[in-house]
Amino acid sequence: MTENGLDESIERMIRSSILEIITMKYTSKAKETLVGFDYRAEAELFPARNRKSTRQLIGYRRFAHAADAIRFAIEELPPELFLGTHLEIDEERFDGQGIRRLYESMTYPLIRRGAA
C-alpha cells in the first residue's frame, strides 16, 4: 500500500495514464499548430537580449512572411540569442521549440540551409 492507500501497481498505472494523457494533449496541440499554418502571414520576431553585451546586436524584426522569419531565426540568429527568441504570427506566439517545429514541418515552403 502507498501513502494514498492505493496498491502500488494501481498507483503506477494511474500515474502512467495521467502522463500518457498529458503527452497526447501536448502532441496533438503541437500538430494542431502545424496543420493549416499560414507561412505567408506577416510575422514579428523578438530575439532574446544578449545579457553579456551592453548593446543589442539584433533586435525586433518584422517580416512580410512567416516562412522568412522562421528561416532567419533558425539559420541566421546566433544560438545564444535563439534560446529566448519568440515569434508572433496572427497574435499567436511561438517559442524556440515552436519555431523549430515550424521549420522542420513538411509543409515549410523554403529550402533549408542549416542552423547558424
Overview of this protein structure:
By secondary structure, this protein is of the alpha+beta class. The chain has two domains: 1-35; 43-104, no CATH class. It has four helices and four strands, in the order αββααββα. The chain has a four-stranded antiparallel β-sheet. A hairpin with a 2-residue loop joins β3 (86-89) and β4. α2 (66-75) packs across α4 (96-104). The longest helix is centred in the N-terminal third of the chain and has 27 residues, at 8-34. The model is unreliable at 25-32 (pLDDT under 50).
From the spread of the alpha carbons, the general shape counts as elongated
Number of helices: 4
* Average pLDDT: 78
**Percentage of residues in DSSP E strands:** 5-15%
Largest sheet: 4 strands, antiparallel
**What's the end-to-end separation, in Å?**
53 Å
The H/E string reads HEEHHEEH
Secondary-structure content class:
alpha+beta
Question: What ranges have pLDDT less than 50 throughout 5 or more consecutive residues?
Answer: 25-32
Strand tally: 4
Strand order of the largest sheet: 2-1-3-4
Helix content: 40-55%
Alpha-carbon Rg, integer: 19 Å
Summarize the structure.
Helices cover 43% and strands 12% of the residues. It has four helices and four strands; from the N terminus they run H-E-E-H-H-E-E-H. Strand 3 (86-89) and strand 4 form a beta hairpin.
Summarize the helices and strands and which ones pair or pack.
Elements: H1 8-34, E1 43-46, E2 61-63, H2 66-75, H3 79-82, E3 86-89, E4 92-94, H4 96-104
Antiparallel strand pairs: 1-2, 1-3, 3-4
Helix pairs in contact: 2-4
